[in-house]
Amino acid sequence: MIVFSTNLGDISIELDMTRAPVSSKNFLRYCKEGFYEGTIFHRVIKGFMIQGGGFTENMDEKPTHDPIVNEANKGLSNVMGTIAMARTDAPHSATGQFFINVGNNDFLDHVASTNAGWGYAVFGKVSAGMDIIKQIEKVKTTTKGDHDDVPVKAIIIEKVTVTD
């Protein structure tokens, strides 16, 4: 169990170590290293997802570990309340950024082992704090530099607690 303590409240996350071991271990590593503390939810799109894990409040991108293999082909679906790895257009480019689905986004699921079909790897779910997720989803957003959909008032991950 992982708890993100944000300036809006706590979000608890359960990892699926069985079906998404690479993504889960990667996320857990960043959590244990304190990487996410002081990062923000930097992309919020109502009805779609909230994304975090890469930027500070000043929109400075944090350095990450090497990318991991995409596990979107493991049968987990991007449904409301699941957490998945964010990535670039390259299928196997996920590092530290993640997103939490606030809608049923099965169009993000794996459909083929091609660049366009790989999908986004789900590796867990929100077990408590969906009310906080819904609050985040409704915040006013703006553009900051090259980044769209950035909350006007920063939503900060202040502390990360990992329990066994």
UniProtKB/TrEMBL annotation:
Class of the enzyme per the UniProt entry, highest EC level: isomerase
A GO biological process of this protein is: protein folding
One annotated GO molecular function: peptidyl-prolyl cis-trans isomerase activity
Give yes or no: UniProt keyword Isomerase.
yes
User: Which reaction is catalysed here?
Assistant: [protein]-peptidylproline (omega=180) = [protein]-peptidylproline (omega=0)
Its Enzyme Commission number(s) read 5.2.1.8
Identify the PANTHER family for this entry: PEPTIDYL-PROLYL CIS-TRANS ISOMERASE CYP38, CHLOROPLASTIC
Task: State the family it belongs to.
Answer: Belongs to the cyclophilin-type PPIase family.
Q: Know the name of this protein?
A: Peptidyl-prolyl cis-trans isomerase
Identify the species of origin.
Shewanella denitrificans (strain OS217 / ATCC BAA-1090 / DSM 15013)
